Amino acid sequence: MPEQTPPPERGARPGQEPPAEGVAAPAPSAPPPRAAPLLRTAAVAAAATGIGALAAASTVLFPGPDASAEAPLTLAVRAVFTVAGTVPLVWAAARFLDRRPLAAFGLGRYPKGWAMPLAALLATLLATALFLVAAVAVGAASVDPGAAAGAAPALAVVLPLLVLAQLLPEELVFRGYAQGVLGERFSPWAALLLQAALFAVSAVLVAGTYANAVHLFLLGVFTGVLRMTTGEVWTVLATRTALAAGGLVYTALDLRLLQAVGLWEVLLVFGPALAAVWAVTSLRSRRPDLAAATPDALPGPRRELGQKGVLYDVGSSYLPGQHSRPRWRPDVVDEEMRVIREDLHCTAVTVFGEDLGRLEEAARLALARGLYVWVQPRLVDGGREEAVARLARTAEFSERLREKHPERVGVNVGCELSMFVRGIVPGRDFDARTRSLGLLSPLFPLFNHRLNRLLGELATTARARFGGPLTYGSGTWESVDWTPFDVIGVDYYLDVLTRATYRQGLRRLRATGKPVLVTEFGCCSYEAARYQGGSGGDIMDWDDLDDRRVTGGHVRDERVQAEVIGELLDVYETEDVMGAFVCMFVEGDCRYSPDPARDLDMASFGIVRPPPLESGLSPDDGHWEPKEAFRTLAARYAATVPAEGS
């Protein structure tokens, strides 16, 4: 049987490490070289700051009683300068520095109607009114009701000018261009924080005072979250317009804070912004299709994947009393490896699970069928020492297999260890850590430091016992130091947050110069699953392990799983990816049922369907049916992608 992975390149360019044994070197990148994202962003931000400073200075041409910062004449002059300078600046940067359309930065025509911007606008205005009424009602603030008539002219005249003079230019440059470009090099959260810092520095330089620097940075964070959530800047602009309207109303009513001034300042300023974030997030969770899918980076030439893979579970337990494969039959495993190689046309498989004896046997059977094998031990809620000890044993038997099958065995040291291993992210168990991850995002640098210490220890342990390539299945929230590894591995699912920048995420990883392996991708089998990515299984209620249910009234749709897998294979074949592994062959404890409330297979990532419990048949005995995704994957893996220029 011919080799299933391309032969490694033995020669390396000067200054470049040779590829690890059994690992194909990455193909040369197709896109032409461009300036570094941070440099391009800094240049545009500096130019925008200069335009803002000139616009502010231009108002001295109109001295007199109407020359205050919010006077109509002053704002009109600033609006002319900033719009005339900023709009061409962003357009030219997108076209000549990035060679991408404005829509790629969230600046295109809103394609889904205006539900998101309207929700943010109304939530902000309502929260502003509620906080104002509450402050007055409890005696914490006073207003001049007789001045209410002055609010209407301010809103009608000053607000539109303020949008043109300040809000629109800032959103075009910072939440539009800067956050979009920084996303090419940095994670979404890092890009968000960097643009917030640039925004604060720019605004401070234009204003000539540092008094509001912290306020401006926090405003950049809030608006950056809205940009990341919606994929466009128009919701952000609507929110800021509503916030500015609230500020004008406060001024017109001569609002004075009398008690707990600091607290009420925070509530009146940031309370409405939080309300907008909540409204948009809630709307997106109910209608994920409303989030704008901005055009992604242009694809490169199509190339065949070196490793066409699938994940194979030898048995995993995520909760006490639950196990994905209670019984182990080597004859069934052997037949399923034959199916994976001959029917699915896979060239590689990742075997994972808790029982190391099963892992070794499954790997041996896969190798006998001609597959390249990545071996990944897993243990939910294990400690650091236990993880290292288990990997040592895994590396030892993997080396024995590699000696018999040179260049066809690799070790994956773990999967998303910040969640699986105790002591990196706080939480008594896997479920608690998963639920707390979003709330603890400001502590990611600490978590990543702990994670990389563990990964360094794991890599050292494996190197001492195993001579083949090493990788790690990282989560998208993890920032990994890839120095000890031969191959970069990422569990990369398509969801509402990654859809607009999916290719950029792969290119960030490729920029390290090491081969990139998509260690997990896939989708569940219901309509909304196309937006949920790796969280697609969250619709399953685990409270009663003997009677698990599917919540939310979802309906089975196998086409969704097949379509997402096909869409992602299109990406991988045009992004110089070394290989990709579908999650997964079968989830044996997620049984099919004609009753949607009990159809656990709908909420699984398996590409084959286990039989209903009522049938008396078990997937552990090899009883399953191929799903539509199985047929899609088989057809794609069987197809030969012609080389460029052939």
Question: What's this entry about, in short?
Answer:
Pfam families: Rce1-like (PF02517). Keywords: Hydrolase, Membrane, Protease, Transmembrane, Transmembrane helix. The chain has 646 residues and is of the alpha/beta class.
Report on this structure.
InterPro entries: GH, Rce1/LyrA-like_dom. Helices cover 47% and strands 9% of the residues. With 646 residues, it is an alpha/beta fold. The chain has an 8-stranded parallel β-sheet. The chain has a two-stranded antiparallel ribbon with strand order 1-2. The two termini are 25 Å apart.
Unreliable segments of 5+ consecutive residues? 1-34
Structural class by sheet pairing and helices: alpha/beta
Q: Give the helix tally.
A: 18
Rounded mean pLDDT score: 87
Radius of gyration: 28 Å
InterPro entries: GH (IPR017853), Rce1/LyrA-like_dom (IPR003675)
Transmembrane segments: 42-63, 75-97, 118-141, 147-168, 189-213, 233-253, 260-280
Organism: Streptomonospora nanhaiensis
Region (Disordered): 1-32
List the helices and strands and how they pair.
Blueprint (H helix, E strand, L loop, with lengths): L36 H22 L13 H26 L17 H23 L3 E2 L8 H32 L5 H20 L5 H18 L3 H19 L3 E2 L3 H26 L20 E7 L16 H14 L4 E6 L2 H13 L3 E6 L6 H21 L4 E7 L1 H4 L9 H7 L7 H20 L6 E4 L14 E4 L10 H9 L5 E6 L7 H4 L7 E2 L7 E2 L7 H16 L5 E4 L25 E2 L15 E2 L1 H11 L8
Parallel strand pairs: 3-4, 3-12, 4-5, 5-6, 6-7, 8-9, 9-12
Antiparallel strand pairs: 1-2, 10-11, 13-14
List the main descriptive attributes of the protein structure presented here.
single chain; 646 residues; alpha/beta; eight-stranded parallel sheet; two-stranded antiparallel ribbon; 14 strands; disordered N terminus; CPBP family glutamic-type intramembrane protease; EC 3.4.-.-; GH
